[in-house]
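A quick aside before the break. I want you to see a complete sequence-to-structure record at least once, exactly as it would be stored in a machine-readable document. Don't worry about memorizing anything.
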Amino acid sequence: MEYSSFTTWLSQVFNTTPKNVLSYFDMLINMLKGAGTSLSIFALTLLFAIPLALFICMGKKSRFKPVSALANALLLVIRGTPLMLQLLIVYFGPGLIATNIFHTTVKWSSFGAAIVAFSINYACYFAEIYRGGIESIPKGQHEAAKVLGYSKIQSFFNIVLPQVIKRIVPAMGNEVITLVKDTSLVTIISIQELMYVAKGNSNRMVSFMPLLIAGVFYFVMNYVVAFAFKKIENKLNYYK
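That is the input. The structure line, written in tokens, reads:
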């Protein structure tokens, strides 16, 4: 069946015009591209935020006061302000500083700004999850590792960390699901992710349907994330 014949057939099935069918095809293709951008932000945020969170967590637990104070200040600011505001500051801040202080121009990618803002924001939340998991391990296990001749680093990576991972999986799953939905915030700095495309198509078609379809996209993505974390929890059941 040729493309034109297929669209004609669909228009007859749904009692509409071939032009409307083509509009919906274009909309779905654009939304798939937007979903790809959302997933890129999601993946890169996790790639940078998960290891960065460990450094922030260790910084907060550090006995060196300037380091712990800096980590606490960062956590206070990031968790106490909206992610949308952080996006705007990261995106517009360098340019304003360069113009007003150094009298020069700085070009800053909106996509790069989104990754930086999201990575720092989620690293701070992950860091507190890590800290809760580490502090939930009984001190006796550290002492037992010391008796067995393990160094602090060896006891952390061989004894503490595997148990911490098991304990923080549910909380991490909640944050990762939130991250999928939070990717829609980057529309404020004109990144053409899923919600940006859905709103544009909704205005163009004068229809609420693109927004409903975007909701289905987000639901499917979050279902996959929830399913993956459930599998991870089942894999780690042997730590019980």
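Two observations worth writing down. The chain is about 80% helix and 0% strand. The chain has one domain: 21-132+140-239. We'll return to this after the break.
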